[in-house]
């Protein structure tokens, strides 16, 4: 039963990601709401808990809660979408911390996949996107 629940959460996060991609140009506020809603189905519990974690405490939180690498990858995609939306809206103040947490979450996913001997083609794309977005903020 636990595996079915994890798969269900992962599928829901994927659906939210698809909705965010569709909404980000025409309804950015609604896309951000969808991203915030996605956190309810994760180990973070809600967006406020994610935001309240310092970048120093973030890696320990991930290890203690044993977030699945699949979930971490989807959250990384959602966070990268959020960064793009906030850049387009001119809301750059939260972006440095958001980008750092995204990087830490990517590192965590890679670490978990490496330990499980799983190879993902997604990381190169995510890393390039993160680097590009980081360059736009500086």
Helical content class: over 70%
The count of strands amounts to 0
Radius of gyration: 14 Å
Given the structure, what is the number of helices?
Answer: 7
Return the string of H and E elements. HHHHHHH
- Unreliable stretches, pLDDT < 50, 5 or more residues? none
* Class per helix and strand makeup: mainly alpha
The total domain count is 1
Mean pLDDT across all residues, rounded?
Answer: 90
Task: Measure the end-to-end span.
Answer: 46 Å
Could you give a quick summary of the protein structure above?
It is built from 7 helices and no strands. By secondary structure, the protein is mainly alpha-helical. It has one domain (2-137).
List the helices and strands and how they pair.
Elements (H helix, E strand, L loop, with lengths): L1 H22 L4 H11 L8 H6 L5 H8 L3 H21 L5 H21 L6 H16 L1
Give a structural overview.
- The protein is mainly alpha-helical.
- It is 76% helix and 0% strand.
- The longest helix is centred in the N-terminal third of the chain and has 22 residues, at 2-23.
- It has helices at residues 2-23, 28-38, 47-52, 58-65, 69-89, 95-115, 122-137.
- Helix 1 (2-23) runs parallel beside helix 5 and helix 6 (95-115) runs antiparallel to helix 7.
- It starts with a helix and ends with a helix.
- The mean pLDDT is 90.
- The protein has one domain.
């Amino acid at each position: 039963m636990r595996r079915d629940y994890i798969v269900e959460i992962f599928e829901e996060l994927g659906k939210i990601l698809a909705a965010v991609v569709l909404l980000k140009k025409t309804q950015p506020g609604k896309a951000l709401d969808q991203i915030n809603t996605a956190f309810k189905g994760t180990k973070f519990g809600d967006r406020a808990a994610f935001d309240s974690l310092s970048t120093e405490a973030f890696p320990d939180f991930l290890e203690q809660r044993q977030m699945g690498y699949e979930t971490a990858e989807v959250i990384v995609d959602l966070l990268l979408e959020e960064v793009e939306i906030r850049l387009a809206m001119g809301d750059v103040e939260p972006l440095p911390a958001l980008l750092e947490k995204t990087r830490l979450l990517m590192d965590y996913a890679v670490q978990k996949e490496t330990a499980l001997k799983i190879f993902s083609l997604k990381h190169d794309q995510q890393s390039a996107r993160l680097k590009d977005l980081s360059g736009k903020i500086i």
